[in-house]
Here is the input.
Amino acid sequence: MTKNPRRNSPKRADYSRRSRPAGAGDSGWIWGRHAVLSALANPKRKIIELRVTRNAARDLPEGREAQIVEPHAIDNDLPPGAVHQGFALKAEALEPEPVNAIMDATHGLVLVLDQITDPHNVGALLRSAAAFGVRAVVMQDRKAPPLFGTVCKSAVGAAERVAHVRVTNIANTLLDMRKAGRTVLGLAGEGETELADALAGVDKQGLGPGVVLVMGSEEKGLRPRVAEACDQLVRIPMTGDVESLNVSNAAAIALYEAAKWRPAKHRAPD
Here is the structure.
């Protein structure tokens, strides 16, 4: 896909918003052992209330106060079927980073989620982002789930370790990233270039650290304007036995491939 000139884009320095996602509220419940212990260890996460069972209390950090309750008392505050393992806390929402903080192409790999709304997938994507050293995950302000509940449970603590950025317009943000010197690669089945080849080409230009990977929703993929805002559409090579991968699986493969091109990882010493 050829580069597109920037057209009719608002001239704004920062597309991020400080408002919460629609319907998210300023606080919410987090449950599960790893998710809760990671939230407690995150100095940026403001804890409102902590509830644990007597057995779970043994795993709390020394000196951490909590309400000791029976398992059913935790069940009553959580969605039906929530597997809490005896751990639940209510916390304030994490503040997103401003998008300007991740514009610099030397600041590392960025993952952008275009209208991925399923909390299980978002949690799994955050987990992969943490595993492969992603600088930040960018989500649309009003189309992404809040970092509570199922997202945090599925992320297994990674929601506390990976910076997130919320923006009002994904396509405009990608155009600004390109203008700042980043290379934007959109994952799409119709992409003519394989991801590994595209990353190798980017690295030859010395732009490896500035790569932005964009993932679309499972149902519709990348929206047309988001796809047009990318430098290139790329694909993961697969056999014809399956039509597509789950978005979290595809992201894990893409992030692993991109991680190979970190300068410190692959360049031979002089």
About this structure: The chain has nine helices and eleven strands. The radius of gyration is 20 Å. The mean pLDDT is 86.
